[in-house]
Automatic annotation (TrEMBL), chain A:
The protein's required cofactors: Mn(2+); Mg(2+)
InterPro entries xrefs: Dis3_CSD2, NA-bd_OB-fold, PIN-like_dom_sf, PIN_dom, RNase_II/R, RNase_II/R_CS, RNR_Ribonuclease, Rrp44_CSD1
Record's protein name: Exosome complex exonuclease RRP44
Residue intervals of the RNB domain: 464-794
Classification of source organism: Eukaryota, Metazoa, Chordata, Craniata, Vertebrata
Quaternary structure and interacting proteins, as annotated: Component of the RNA exosome complex; within the complex interacts with EXOSC4, EXOSC7 and EXOSC9 of the exosome core complex (Exo-9). The catalytically inactive RNA exosome core complex (Exo-9) associates with the catalytic subunit EXOSC10/RRP6. Exo-9 may associate with DIS3 to form the nucleolar exosome complex, or DIS3L to form the cytoplasmic exosome complex. Exo-9 is formed by a hexameric base ring consisting of the heterodimers EXOSC4-EXOSC9, EXOSC5-EXOSC8 and EXOSC6-EXOSC7, and a cap ring consisting of EXOSC1, EXOSC2 and EXOSC3; DIS3 associates with the base ring of Exo-9.
Protein species of origin: Carassius auratus
Molecular-function annotations in GO: 3'-5'-RNA exonuclease activity; endonuclease activity; RNA binding
Acidic residues bias spans: 311-322
Sequence ranges assigned to domain PIN in this UniProt record: 61-179
Gene for this chain: dis3
Alphabetical list of SMART domains matching this protein: PINc (SM00670), RNB (SM00955)
Pfam families, A to Z: OB_Dis3, PIN_4, RNB, Rrp44_CSD1, Rrp44_S1
Automatic annotation (TrEMBL), chain B:
Gene name, Swiss-Prot/TrEMBL: exosc2
Organism whose genome encodes this protein: Carassius auratus (Goldfish)
Keyword Glycoprotein in annotation: no
Compartments, record wording: Cytoplasm; Nucleus, Nucleolus
Family of this protein: Belongs to the RRP4 family.
A GO term from the CC aspect: cytoplasmic exosome (RNase complex)
Protein name, UniProt field: Exosome complex component RRP4
GO molecular function (one): RNA binding
From TrEMBL, chain C:
Quaternary assembly: Component of the RNA exosome core complex (Exo-9), composed of EXOSC1, EXOSC2, EXOSC3, EXOSC4, EXOSC5, EXOSC6, EXOSC7, EXOSC8 and EXOSC9; within the complex interacts with EXOSC2, EXOSC7 and EXOSC9. The catalytically inactive RNA exosome core complex (Exo-9) associates with the catalytic subunit EXOSC10/RRP6. Exo-9 may associate with DIS3 to form the nucleolar exosome complex, or DIS3L to form the cytoplasmic exosome complex.
Name of the protein in its database record: Exosome complex component RRP41
Subcellular location: Cytoplasm; Nucleus, Nucleolus; Nucleus, Nucleoplasm
Keywords: Acetylation, Cytoplasm, Exosome, Nucleus, RNA-binding, rRNA processing
Organism: Carassius auratus
Homology family: Belongs to the RNase PH family.
Amino acid sequence: MLKSKTFVKKTRAGGVLKIVREHYLRDDIWCGSEVCKECKDEAPVLQEDACIESNLCSYPHYLIPDTNVLLHQIDILEHTLIRNVIILQTVLQEVRHRSAPVYKRIKDAIHEKEKHFYTFTNEHHRETFIEREPGESANDRNDRAIRVAAKWYADHLTKNTNGGSLKVVLLTDDRANKEKAEQYGLTVYRCEEYIKSLIGNPELVDRLALKPDDQNEIIGSKLLFPEHLPLSRIQSGIKNGGLLQGTFHANRDNYLEGTVFINREGEDINEVLLQGLQNLNRAVHQDVVAVELFPKERWVAPSSVVLQDDSPNDEDAEEDETENKLKGVPPDSSVLKPTGRVVGVIKRNWRPYCGMLSQSMIKEATRHLFTPADRRIPRIRIETRQAANLAGQRIMVAIDGWPKNSRYPNGHFVKNLGTAGDKETETEVLLLEHDVPHLPFSPAVLSFLPKMPWSITEEDMKVRADLRHLCVCSVDPPGCTDIDDALHCRELENGNLEVGVHIADVSHFIRPGNALDQEAASRGTTVYLCGKRIDMVPELLSSNLCSLRSNVERLAFSCIWEMNHNAEIIKTRFTKSVINSKASLTYAEAQMKIDDTTMNDDITKSLRGLNRLAKILKGRRTEKGALTLSSPEVRFHIDSETHDPIDLQTKELKETNSMVEEFMLLANISVAQKIYDEFSECALLRKHPSPPPSNYDILIKAAKSKDLDIHTDSAKALADSLNNATVRNFPYFNTLLRILATRCMMQAVYFCSGMDSDFHHYGLASPIYTHFTSPIRRYADIIVHRLLAVAINADSTYPELMDKHKQSSLCNNLNYRHKMAQYAQRASVAFHTQLFFKNKGIINEEGFILFVRKNAIIILIPKFGMEGTVFFENKDKPSPRLKFDSEGPTLEVEEHTFHMFDKVKVTISVDASNIQHQRIRMALIEPVIPGVSVPVPESEPVAKKAKLDC
Amino acid sequence: MASVEMRLPAVHKPVSPAASQSNRDDKHLVVPGDVITSDTGFMRGHGTYMDEDRLTASVAGEVERVNKLICVRPLKTRYNGEVGDVVIGRITEVQQKRWKVETNSRLDSVLLLSSVNLPGGELRRRSAQDELAMRDYLQEGDLISAEVQSIFSDGALSLHTRSLKYGKLGQGVLVLVSPSIVKRQKTHFHNLPCGASIILGNNGYVWLYPTPGHQDEEAGGYYTSMEPVSLADREVISRLRNCLLALAAHKVLLYDTSVLYCYEASLTHQIKDILKPEIMEEIILETRQRLVEHEG
Amino acid sequence: MAGLELLSDQGYRLDGRKATELRKVQARTSVFAQADGSAYLEQGNTKALAVVYGPHETRGSRSKSLHDRAVINCQFSMATFSTAERKRRPHGDRKSSEMSLHLKQTFEAAVLTELYPRSQIDIYVKILQADGGNYSACVNAATLALVDAGIPMRDYVCACTAGFVEDTPLADLCHAEESGGGTSLALALLPRSGNIALLQMDARLHQDHLDALIEAAMTACKGLSKVLDDVVRQHLEEVSVLTRD
């Protein structure tokens, strides 16, 4: 089988190392075509009638793209129209080295059966392998390899179809390569040429990426940006410490500012501030860049100006003005940060961006600016002929490049998502922007669901504790269909109490490694948006089989404690069980039962017992320094027909909420301890690191302004001082403080116990913590269930579970998904808030100043739990006199000084003037500052959408 | 300046399939782990072991069957001594009442003080005096010729030199070959007509020396002549040595005739050229032909 | 820069082999006239030279010799030029000593040492070029040398490495694959009986994968034993043709 000639490939790495590798050539690599009789391929990929209708090639043909075509035109290749493509190994390898995202996408395309993409391992094929000739560059060799392979295919197919019509078409944009290929007798086209020839698919042309030689026409000759350094110099610069490498984060509020996070250990500087377009030098959010530090005297403080790039056209001249504005801000002497400039981009992290088209002023123009939804992404110049159709639509655009003489990066159109402002479209946009997998579950995934009708089998009963007789009930928010926890409490004969937390046994249904499991692992969490839920597991499980609904038998994983009346745990037991919930209550219902002294049934007794214990547990936890923080949570009342929000209210917390929460915490802690004891290397835990002291600065300053001291040396001190921080006649002050405190906190994260040593959960003041109680909506819980099941010998283990590296990469994904889910949730709330205010028109509300910025104040409106910004600068009007004091921090506007926590009155409206970016506008009513504040609107909301000039 | 000849290793020539085919018919070749027979009626000999009632080869070689006894004779092995064999060995150690002799077998052989002729051929019990004088007779590094007297239970050989033809070796050349290519013969001492003598030790050690002019009986085997050897003799010995190596390389059995034929065949070439592969091949081919003619 | 892709989606490895395929093995026995047995073996770019002396009288301290069987003495060394970066000393470092010990243990399992009481068998192996699977190349070369020396063995000892990449066991790893992370398991097998003479693995592996990995290594060993067998038989025939009389 292995008919190999040993070829020796020499590569030189580093200094004097000579690496010799074997390179086997085979003659059992098949061409992958259906027509071929000679190749003994079992499942040929390429079709016999490979027809893409084209003016250029009317015959059936296979496409062979070269590396650059693949790299730049991946959007086209992904289109369903393009099928029967041969991806050469040479091409694939080059792509792999040059762009990980494109590599992943092409691999996905190859895996898709419908696409008929075939990978031909030409480098190991006896007849297509070529050696690099002396004096030939690596690229030239690869180009030649591509030509040789294409030629081989051409001959091979001709031979095997007896001179039939099947041909191969080489796609290349390299002129020299094309010429050589033509001489060589190949059918070769430029990508653009070929795509344009395709019949009946004009939109494909828009997907074409712009090529470097086209760009000269687009932009003026003025060089706007300094040249990037070549990679070799960057690398040596990083090595000798002259340059720093880091990930670029654009500032959300100020497009002229960004931060580079240096992710190297042992550096004194881990953040470098960048200011101004020149210094940002074409870095796009998330790029890995090399930065050069300025000398200390050129360091600046981050400006707290809010600046948005919304100049209406793409003329480059106007920019200077804004730049000056930035420079006009007097340097703040106290908090200078290391400042620098980008000298090169090491790795672009571009992805397709959602956003809208800003149409060019000229009607017939084909070049337009695209404004991404994410404010950290610069606007992108694209070329399209369907601008008229795309106006008012949400579209997706990919960046192709950013030449040094262009103000904006160049890109191309990828896909139309739908009408802007449309609820579906906007939801789609925010899901895409937050990378939330939201496609329907594939048939492969669904095939692993249990067959209906499903019932508990004898075998299940044998290995499970039968707890059906217990008086178990669940307490959840109203309308909850994925009930994953239920509780019970009863008195034992010895006078102690037995408390049980029963969690849906999702791991019984989702077996490790199958498609269902993989899908759930990749989704990581269920995402709750307003009026929409993106499930982690298919609905059959989430809302039926795993949901612990009342009066049906369900499989559960139970954690049962024996406690005395002081809520001290005497014994803990974990078991897989079968339960039959007696009631599914809402928080309010449960509260009513507890409060209603006339009720004395089992459920109520059980609830009262739980409630009593929960209070003791909570007291004890608070004693240890657990924090009670606050963030305004909003609920929308959604119109049942139009699904538009008709009212919004902040979430109310009842005693029963904290009762359920308390037992969930207890279960989580018990389980965390158990799995850590059992698997010290690979337990999946959750930690919440204590924040660095500097994070609290803003909180301390804010409290000082009201003559209060906040101690932040420990969680306990913080909790206590927060409890004591109250101001008379200002009941909401404490909540505000807690909101601020929340913003000081670090993110809680999942981690694998074998990879970390700090397990502490700061917020809960627990030495160890994990997630166990919501397996329906969090994948971490499923893993914890599996670990626990192994620990109590209820299930068998599998390799990935015990591999701490795999575990840890899973944790990374889960953390990422959770973060993204949160962002998506917030974005969804924001969108619905807009919808709400759009319907309501201008309203007049009371709020508090949460932050003070240089040219704006940020206001929280408790009634809606909503934040908004009031700007004091405006393009159209002369700016009022502003004086910012960072110590307070306070902002003096004309005569009035704004402090934090000041009560103000504002109007709220939706600024629909700019349909691309609708946003909530706030305008000051009280205190009245002439020229700044606006008059109180008429009590009757204006029906038409008022446009405020603020 | 002497010119140095250098060459690259020649391509390994495979044996023609026809030759190996014919070979397969009359020889039963096995490799370690090969089952020779599962029949329990056979006796286990050298080079075999029992693996769960199956008689299995433990070495690579040819199966030899003597009635019920099955042995496997490996191609190449250390010397397995038999009583009466002539061996050549080197003294490695002088112990009380005995010498240790390295004879290419798996344990050093023993030459007891009582198994040697005393100088002058005296016949008496060995005394303590003799023990003290042992190193005067034979010391470490000396080469001797001897005969296998008996074999100890652990496989070590006991030698004797109780004949005037055995004893300490003087000037000459030692050639080491594989024991398996030394043919067993009535005599292993030959005075070759070409002017030198040869002792073909059964243990694969071959001793080439100038034919002594007169037998010095009085020396009793301990006398070594220090007289210079003539150039002619040295040339003959050198040529013989190279011939022996050539024969060994081509696995031709060594005995007086084969050595002599080879010597004669080599006469057309210079001594130093004999070991060049192509010349070696030519000489050996001629030797083989003559041997076949001789036998036929 | 992305790391090396050890196994492509099409099932080809870096050097073009499939997961279960071995590298090209070439070997020759009787490469030295002086030694009792010798062999030279190439497993891809890994080249090993093995020399066997013995059985012979125990040299050096007499106390080492055993009254009921032979002592096997192994010495492993690597030529200074065998690796990409020149080695300081060819033998005697910790890794070499460990390797020597492993070889000794391997061959004590296979050689019928009880036939040679008070004797010693020396096995010297040298790696001339290292490209992964040093241990296995040494074992295979030493086996050939032992056969060449006519030392009785229960069976050949064949060794091969196997690694685990993307849930697929790979047979006979080359250097790039060994250093590319992942598990590497070295296994020495007596192919006919299926007895394992030595099994060594440094990295962590879940036990569920172990069987598959051992299975892959064993299959590879059996493949190798065929190659060694051919080499030995070829040599045997050549010699017996010559000595036919």
